[in-house]
Design goal:
about 40% strand, mainly beta, five-stranded antiparallel β-sheet, single chain, about 10% helix
Length: about 425
């Protein structure tokens, strides 16, 4: 009887997924696209391939105060860091972060994360895969000598059973406090042991107030998060983080929730951030993004695929998530508009996402100069016929850049219109 119920649920999930994700199912043109991708990255998959940014997986990037572009990425069981002093035209030799190799989950929704403080310290976080499928630990290392050496990695989740601790986000404030949040299934594991029901995963976080020497005990933010969509984090003007994730409301409504920490160890009220009412018994691997302006306005972007309201969306809040502006629809849903990013700078707000026209992936951007009241027309920035990571938005001084990595090709940095 138990096996029959499990089989029935599995079939139901597959059928519902086919219906709900129909606009994103691969077609023959995309198969050709993937063949081309494989050919381009073949050199990166050879046993004797050298570690290089071109062949990396899951890269992330950030500018320091002097305009140096720092990158963290994974290759062959190691995390590496290198930098560019000429906006990506050339790069320094990579430095190994974890000297002992380990299985690393670094792609798509779970890239390597990098952050810098004003003293030049470099902080790197990633997910180490464990023996069980969909399981992992959140790892962390730091450099206090400008990237010459990195500390031995530590595991920041203090629950060490083999289950899912993944999809982390990381940010630090002007006081040098480091915050890391992730999706965690320790409570699901505990519920199974006692025979109690539990939906989804949970959102946990920890912080360090000693520049990454150690982290505080983990704190739970909320139960019943979606299991495998990335979390997003931004620092509010008071130095406290705001965390955004896909949440499970009611029985299986997969919209978004956010919370602002009122203190380093005090979680504020969890608030619903999207109201699309997407009912799906499965995780779409499609997390949101958030940016907080100097004026304290929260800028949010996300994907949902509800029958009546689907695609990419943007909205903002000027009262810390209590209420939200009228949302706008972004991108071409029929071209699989996906994985949006948002960045606010003064009154300027930038949106960035990917689309697929049946042959090539395109990177698209649009921006506003009045905090989201009026928007520019979408602008295609670059195309690619190879497999690519999700795009990023970066800023140095007043200039905003789109960053995009296609494995087997050079890392691209594109200056956006102001």
């Amino acid at each position: 009887m138990i096996k029959q119920k499990t089989l029935s649920r599995t079939l139901g999930f597959l059928i519902s997924s086919l219906v709900l994700f129909a606009p994103f199912i691969t077609h023959s043109a995309e198969h050709k696209h993937n063949k081309s991708s494989a050919a381009i990255s073949a050199a990166c998959n050879k046993a004797d391939s050298l570690a290089s940014l071109k062949c990396s997986r899951g890269p992330s990037a950030v500018f320091d105060t002097n305009g140096r572009l720092w990158l963290a990425w994974a290759f062959g069981g190691h995390v590496y860091v290198n930098f560019s002093d000429d906006k990506g035209n050339s790069y320094s030799p990579p430095v190994i972060v974890n000297k002992t190799p380990e299985p690393i989950a670094a792609k798509a929704e779970s890239p390597v994360k990098i952050a810098l403080d004003e003293e030049g310290n470099i902080f790197v976080s990633w997910t180490m895969k464990l023996a069980k499928r969909f399981s992992g630990h959140i790892r962390f290392s730091r450099s206090t000598d400008n990237g010459v050496n990195f500390s031995s990695p530590i595991t920041v989740n203090d629950h060490l059973e083999i289950t899912s601790h993944r999809f982390q986000s990381m940010a630090l404030n002007d006081r040098g406090e480091i915050f890391i949040a992730w999706l965690d299934k320790r409570d699901l594991l505990a519920a199974k042991k006692t025979g109690n029901p539990y939906t989804g995963a949970a959102v946990y976080y920890t912080y360090s107030d000693n520049q990454g020497k150690s982290f505080q005990p983990n704190i739970k933010i909320a139960d019943s998060s979606c299991e495998c969509c990335r979390t997003a984090m931004a620092i509010d003007k008071d130095g406290m983080p705001v965390i955004l994730w896909r949440h499970i409301f009611d029985k299986n409504t997969r919209d978004h929730a956010l919370v602002k920490l009122t203190d380093k160890s005090l979680v504020g009220k969890v608030r619903r951030a999207s109201f699309d009412n997407w009912q799906v018994d499965g995780c779409p691997h499609h997390g949101p993004d958030i940016s907080v302006g100097d004026d304290g306005i929260y800028h949010l972007t996300w994907f949902n695929n509800a029958p009546e309201r689907h695609g990419l969306f943007y909205a903002n809040s000027d009262d810390q998530g209590k209420t939200f502006s009228h949302l706008i629809s972004v991108g071409n849903y029929n071209a699989r508009a996906s994985h949006p990013q948002v960045l606010s700078s003064a009154n300027h707000v930038y949106l960035l996402w990917k689309e697929f026209d049946g042959k090539q992936s395109q990177l698209i951007s649009m921006h506003t100069i009045d905090n989201g009241k009026h928007w520019s027309a979408p602008k295609a920035l670059i195309q690619s016929n190879s497999a690519n990571e999700h795009p990023l938005l970066l800023q140095y001084n007043s200039q905003v850049y789109a960053a995009w990595h296609r494995r087997g090709e050079d890392y691209r940095l594109i200056a956006l219109d102001n």
